[in-house]
Carbon-nitrogen hydrolase
Amino acid sequence: MKHAIYQMDIVAGNPKANRLRVEDWVKETVKKEQPDIIVLPEMWTTAYTLSELEKYADVNGEPTTSFLKELAKTYQINIIGGSVANKREGKIYNTSLVFDRGGNLVYGYDKMHLVPMLNEPSYLTGGREKVCVFELDGIKMGLIICYDLRFPELARSLALQGAQILYVVAEWPTARKEHWKALQIARAIENQFFVVSSNRIGSYDGEDFAGKSMVTDPWGNCLHMAGETEEETIIASLSLEMVPKIRKDVPIFTSRVPELY
Ligand SMILES: NC(=O)CCC(=O)C(=O)O
């Protein structure tokens, strides 16, 4: 399954400009690489303009849903749509949307762990739906948003539900870049699945973002890592047969005794 991961800079508070950038990137990348699936970062329409989200947030998932749906259908690609600020019933969520090649919305997720270090709890509402896996091209996958990466129980739940790939869409700051790398490798090793991430670069309101979008295999090898400061596209084909092989060779899922812990 060929992935194209967009490590992008984000124009703060300008959803229209960011949609144009994504549209151009998809057009160019599909022409050059014919990926099966594309991956975008967290809050890619607005950046962390939290105090202004009343103005910039989507309303009931629009216009992002129509925009990504159209891209998926036009280019017949699966889309892990990063996340966007999304207003529903007077509350703003940090919402991820996933589309298949036919433009069908196959999964939606509201970020459940809001990050205190970036002041999210003052502006956003955390999702309270139980997480689940979704399927694209017949492969089970899970998706988490940035700070969620620090909660191993969440990734484990998705692995137990059969995920072979975990996507992490992020705006992870440079200040904690060592955690970013180590946590992805840890989640990959302990759950024996691929971890694929898209992080932004650039700065907003005094915070620098780390880039270093990554692809880690189920053995914990980092197969790809982007740089820290430039927009980049990672192209990665995943050998999914590694997942059952490693789960057979190091059978942690049959060795677990969850009733004891
Ligand atoms: N956007 C985020 O969730 C940032 C998470 C973060 O800064 C951290 O976990 O550290």
